[in-house]
Design goal:
The chain is mainly beta. The chain is about 10% helix and about 40% strand. It folds into 3 domains: about 160 residues, Winged helix-like DNA-binding domain superfamily/Winged helix DNA-binding domain (Arc Repressor Mutant, subunit A, Orthogonal Bundle); about 270 residues, TolB, C-terminal domain (Neuraminidase, 6 Propeller), CATH 2.120.10; about 280 residues, Neuraminidase. The chain has a 5-stranded antiparallel beta sheet, with helices on one face. A 4-stranded antiparallel beta sheet has the order 11-58-33-32, with no helix packed on it. The chain has a 4-stranded antiparallel beta sheet with strand order 12-13-14-15, with no helix packed on it. A hairpin with a 2-residue loop joins strand 25 and strand 26. Helix 1 crosses helix 3 and helix 4 crosses helix 6.
């Protein structure tokens, strides 16, 4: 072995980013950021000519020196680069567009910043490759150069760098875990498959691995539709064009037809369409409310083409089950019967021989495990004992293992579970923040989705306090932010502190900070089971929340200054989303302990609980005078009801659909604030006046809010609203091939 020194001094720094030209890697706050080769070269050109206008013609000639390409290709790569850098459509803090002229990098840049050097043992071959490539030979040529042929071609440079990093195996270069070998040595050639603007999701490889179907919102961030593209490249073909959300495409075994899930305001359903596009055929209507308990898939197609499997149920009070559905005549029969205490079964996948279905049984909002059931019928058997958030899964082509996405350790990664039983292993080739694994039927390709989402907590100052009829607001600003997820904020009764949920420690825990986001303090350390839904006691001394230390959701309290959590419920039921009564004597919470989802209450010190609602209840809050209890009736349904706090008739207040933001509401005197998604990238906060029954727009943000999260919180003086925002939004599809 030889020893080489990787000097992380050759590069450029700007803002929180560092471009390392030795290993062709972009870092943000010391963490590697996945950036495809072409985007890295584009960024290098712009940074090296910072402050200057770089014309579109120059960029095209330097990025594709020996190829004729259309300007649209440059647009795609500019958009992808901006997405990685976290730029919004209306705020270009790094790359400025000069219409009909070109682009200019406008951020302050420093060269050869204070970056550590390190020495690593590598093979002599890699040492020779690295030592013979000087910084000068790696640099992009000046604008007057004819071509890039005298330096390493991009198609060779990146595989060599990837190979070097794979052999070096140093934690400081963990970005290249993204490109590291899969557990099987026959898998290789991991590449970014799509880098379009906005999120691409639900990858589905055709049976022969030549095409990929996926969901995308288009270049204009419209509603999600189904697209198909050649794996080897080319422009995507839009297969569906509906104002509804088209999701989760799956291929027929002959590769001619796509089945997909359509989520529409009026009803949800399964549809069939030719893989080339054209007329659609509706197979069946399915139960609509399923988007508030995780990122799952809902259907799959059997290898012999005779059956589809779909997640469905017939009423709000029963769990989701798996049903087999005939694609020709629509014949439907139930396959699984989960217990009434769970949310249900989803993310189904047929085994390669079609004899077994793997699926995720969701126990509570963020806890699930992988199960297996024969397609001929019978009892489901549990494969994993993870008690974690498991999203979706796929069979390996040999049928011996399940690859699934889990939030073990607080970050979505892929894991392998042997069908025969045994220890779980990390599927390290896919890297971090990945979901939705998918294999081609011939076993020659694997795809997955890699997310770049980042959720922060923002605050907006309301301009009018005393007059609900004339409420407006200033522009919202970030308050609590990190490179991971911060959500579910709650103001303390005195308005001086904020409780929130963050996974910055590696798992979802309860944190508190000052009202400006400073002095963050981690309160809980469950280190795996998700903690959520924090709410302050009226005296500000305690915080109530839910957590799942044993896989089952229960209610806990903790001192707001720190200490050991106290468990208040021990039932086998799911007990979640707690809140305090205004006098601090009781804690309300949602439970299915009576056989259906209702609101219960118990003494704040613990003890016997009594049922409050009878016709459904999920998340609630008492009015300021303590006379009324306002609540949503069902998980994921955006409809506000109320009942006298002392008990009585349950009455409807108003419906604020769409359902995606069902947890984004906050009471104030005379009404309630709520959120409504105007598009995939815009959200408006409204105020509903109880007296006039009018909806008044308060402000709009050019960001979506996280679906399923607890959201709006109003400061005690009613001057500020706080809410979680998807500050950076995007996902790309990645591809790995066999035997190349």
């Amino acid at each position: 072995m030889a020893v080489i020194s990787v000097r992380k001094k050759t590069g450029y720094g700007f803002d929180s980013y560092w471009m390392d030209l030795d290993i062709f890697c972009l870092f943000r706050n010391g963490e590697p950021v996945p950036l495809p080769p072409k985007e890295f070269e584009l960024l290098q050109i712009l940074v090296e000519q910072r402050g200057q206008i770089v014309t579109r013609e120059e960029l095209i000639s330097r990025l594709w020196p020996d190829t004729i390409v259309e300007e649209a290709n440059l647009n795609v790569h500019i958009s992808a680069l901006r997405k990685v850098l976290g730029e919004s459509p209306n705020s270009h803090k790094y790359i400025q567009t000069l219409p009909r002229r070109g682009y200019r990098f406008v951020a302050e840049v420093h060269e050869n910043g204070e970056q550590e050097s390190a020495s690593f043992a590598v093979s002599p071959l890699i040492a020779q490759v690295v030592s013979t490539e000087t910084p000068e030979s790696r640099a992009l040529p000046p604008a007057s150069s004819v071509s890039l042929q005298k330096r390493w071609p991009a198609r060779l440079k990146w595989p060599l760098a990837i190979l070097a990093v794979g052999l070096i195996g140093v934690p400081a270069l963990r970005y290249f875990n993204f490109f590291s070998p899969a557990p099987s040595e026959s898998w290789s050639n991991v590449i970014p498959l799509t880098t379009y603007p906005g999120p691409e999701s639900f990858p589905a490889l055709s049976p022969d691995g030549s095409h990929i179907a996926f969901t995308w919102e288009g270049e204009k961030d419209e509603n999600p539709d189904i697209y198909v593209r050649l794996v080897e490249g080319g422009n995507p073909v839009r297969v569906t064009d509906s104002p509804a959300e088209d999701l989760n495409p799956v291929w027929s075994p002959d590769g001619q037809t796509l089945a997909f899930y359509r989520h529409a305001p009026e009803t949800d359903g399964l549809y069939l369409v030719s893989a080339l596009g054209g007329a659609e055929r509706k197979l069946t209507t399915v139960y609509a409310n399923r988007f508030n308990f995780g990122q799952h898939t809902w259907l799959d197609w059997a290898p012999d083409g005779k059956w589809l499997v779909v997640t469905d149920k017939s009423s709000s009070q029963e769990p989701f089950s798996l049903y087999l559905l005939g694609p020709e005549l629509g014949e439907k029969r139930q396959l699984t019967t989960p217990p009434g205490s769970v949310i249900g079964d989803c993310s189904p996948a047929f085994s390669p021989d079609g004899k077994t279905l793997a699926f995720v049984r969701v126990i509570s909002a963020s806890v699930g495990d992988v199960y297996l059931v024969p397609t001929s019928g019978g009892e489901a058997t549990r494969l994993t004992l993870d008690n974690q958030c498991i999203n979706d899964l796929a069979w390996t082509p040999d049928g011996r293992q399940i690859i699934f996405s889990s939030r073990r350790g607080g970050i979505n990664r892929l894991w392998e579970a042997p069908i025969s039983g045994g220890a779980l292993q990390r599927f390290s080739a896919a890297g971090n923040q990945v979901r939705k694994p998918n294999f081609s039927q011939n076993g020659k390709a694997m795809a997955w989705m890699q997310s770049t989402d980042n959720i922060d907590i923002w605050r907006v100052e309301l301009k009018a306090k005393a007059s609900p009829a004339a409420i407006s607001a200033n522009d919202p600003t970030p308050v609590i932010a990190s490179t991971l997820t911060d959500s579910s904020p709650a103001y303390a009764p005195d308005g001086k502190r904020i409780a929130f949920v963050s996974n910055r420690s590696g798992s979802n825990e309860i944190w508190v900070s000052q009202r400006d986001g400073s002095a963050s303090l981690q309160l809980t350390s469950f280190q795996g089971p998700q903690a959520g839904s924090p709410r302050w006691a009226p005296d500000g001394k305690s915080i109530v929340f839910d957590s799942r230390p044993d896989g089952n959701a229960d209610i806990f309290t903790i001192n707001s200054e720190g200490g050991q959590p106290q468990r208040l419920t021990t039932e086998s039921s799911e007990d979640i989303v707690p809140t305090w009564s205004r006098d601090g004597q009781y804690i309300y919470f949602n439970s299915n302990r009576g056989g259906s989802s209702q609101i219960w209450k118990m003494p704040a010190i613990g003890g016997a609980a009594t049922q409050v609602t009878r016709n459904g209840g999920f998340e609630c809050a008492e009015s300021a005078d303590g006379q009324w209890l306002y609540y949503t009736r069902e998980r994921g349904v955006a409809s506000i009801w109320r009942i006298p706090a002392a008990g009585g008739e349950e009455t409807s207040v108003f419906d604020y659909r769409p359902n995606g933001y069902s947890r984004m509401w906050a009471l104030r005197n005379g009404g309630v604030y709520f959120a409504r998604g105007e598009s995939s990238v815009r959200t408006t906060i409204y105020f509903f006046n109880f007296s006039t029954r009018q909806e008044l727009p308060v402000f709009m943000t050019q960001h979506p809010l996280p679906i399923g999260n607890a959201g709006l919180t109003l400061s005690p003086d009613e001057r500020f609203l706080m809410f979680p925002v998807i500050a950076q939004r995007g996902s790309d599809l990645m591809l790995m091939k066999r035997g190349l």
